[in-house]
Amino acid sequence: MTDKVLFVDDEENILHSIKRELRKRFQIHTAGSGIEALEVLKNEGPFAVIVSDMRMPGMDGIQLLAAVKDQYPDTIRLMLTGNADQETAIEAVNKGQIFRFLNKPCPTPTLVMAIALAQRQYRLVNAERELLDKTLKGAITVLSEVLSLASPLAFSSGLRVKSLVGEIARKLQMDNIWQLEIAALISQIGCITLPPDTLYKLYAGQELAAQEEAMYRDHPQIGSKLLEKIPRLEEVAAIIAHQLLPYSALAESRNIKEEVSLGAQILRMAIDFDALLHRDWKRTEALAHLESQPGEYNPELLKILTGIKLGPENERVVAVELRDMSAGMIVEQDIEALNGVLIAPKGQEVTWSLIKGLKNFAQQVGVKEPILVRVRQ
Length: 377
Hints:
Helix content: 40-55%
CATH architecture of the largest domain: Orthogonal Bundle
Structural class: alpha/beta
CATH class of the largest domain: Mainly Alpha
CATH superfamily of the largest domain: Hypothetical protein af1432
Radius of gyration: 27 Å
Distance between the termini: 37 Å
Strand order of the largest sheet: 2-1-3-4-5
Order of helices and strands: EHEHEHEHEHHHHHHHHHHHEEEEHE
């Protein structure tokens, strides 16, 4: 995180005065115009706080802080101006989502307190993001890996689908992409309640019996109930709960939040597309199959999916011994123990924990070698 503060004012003597008074308390940078401020933010950022004057030639303070809000949303925005009319204040707050509105001349103690509070707000926002990015997502990734070892058929697709939904979400410029990625990673957590034979049928694309179909249809609600107990995963749980609903039902529902509806649409399309690919369907065949079912998938999302490249083009398939496997490889053919037990299905990404599990199987039962994997050249 940063503690840097950017002051913007077209009067050079004011900038010198501020720098002189505050340099011992804060790491101060200055800019003499809105355009210059944006250049400083671009070349010397990130900044924790920006304090801008209102009346400046060219780009005024409201325009500048509105641009900062769009381009650098984490930077906390303050306005310092001699124009204390109510209309200016309202416009500044609405367009720039300003943290504090200060009047000139502003006493130094008041300015110091406002900047300190803004820095504190910046740290809080970024600490929360760091918690989500590193702690929560890391914990969920570990959970996904553990589940993939316990039930590889149910959870092997998590990392693949996560990459796919993340790419789609970035194309759509969605907020909170981390929620959709976590939903993808553990979307099948409710499948831990399904019998192994049912999972094998699902993996092979075979038709399920009525009772098996009913059990499978229940898995999103089971997964959702497990996750909704975890703080900050309420929306993730909701996306997982609605992952089997067709696009037509999600689009028409007024009881489902828009973010949840779109997330569930993306998740279902990605899971079904991934399943077809790993039943050895060609990409064009899989896309055509999804497009041939009106009302099941969002047509706009299918267009985005068509334009996404899956994995780097410089991959090749090689046969390796277990001792030569490394994290990041992709299993190209089911890995089985010598007794026929499936250890890792085709398409699963090789992780450190999977390699450890394979070595344990090799010592106790034996693993069929060589193993076909995809690697980057």
